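Input.
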Amino acid sequence: MPRWLKLSLMLAVFGSIFYITHFHYDLRPSDIRDVVLSFGWWGPVVFFLIYAVGPIIFLPTSVLSLGAGLAFGVWPGVLYILFGATAAAVTGYVMARLFGRSVLKVESYPWSEKLFTQMEQRGFLYVFVLRLIPLVSFDLLSYAGGIAKVRFRSFILATVLGMIPGTLAYSFLGASLASGSITLVVIAALVFVTLIGVTYYFREPVKRWLGLTSE
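Output.
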């Protein structure tokens, strides 16, 4: 089979999945929970696979993470989210290494060249900070790591460490919603809002420190 035909078929499959998940279904965290739990003991594996293909069909990571909290609770929900999100990061990274800048229109971001230059020199630091303070989307950072050729081991370690606070917040919020306890929901919401507030507060200083301003 010609290479162009294989690529066309692959794009057609991914395009169909993208259309179904984004336009035919209004994907919610409860939908992720229902799908995952319907597989019984295989639920964690199914969740892992769904998360892993997320960057290909552009599934929102926030919905997936909340779905894990609803389905599995704080523990082992945190663990499953970390595994799934790490797999998604690897997917984006590998796509970028294989297809280069064709997977990402870097020219549309005025700070992109600065980011790639700095990531080539200090990949671990940049990936870690940008996972901790998400100035760019999860998948975009994974693509950038691959394009900048950050060392794979550094990319994975920085991703896991940087995701821990957000992962805890998402799993706690999802688990609190599943519990039905108003008190627990309020506490989880406060934790989540606090994390967002901290992220917002440090957004501009971190952007300047990393050299990601358009100036």
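The two ends are 49 Å apart (CA to CA).
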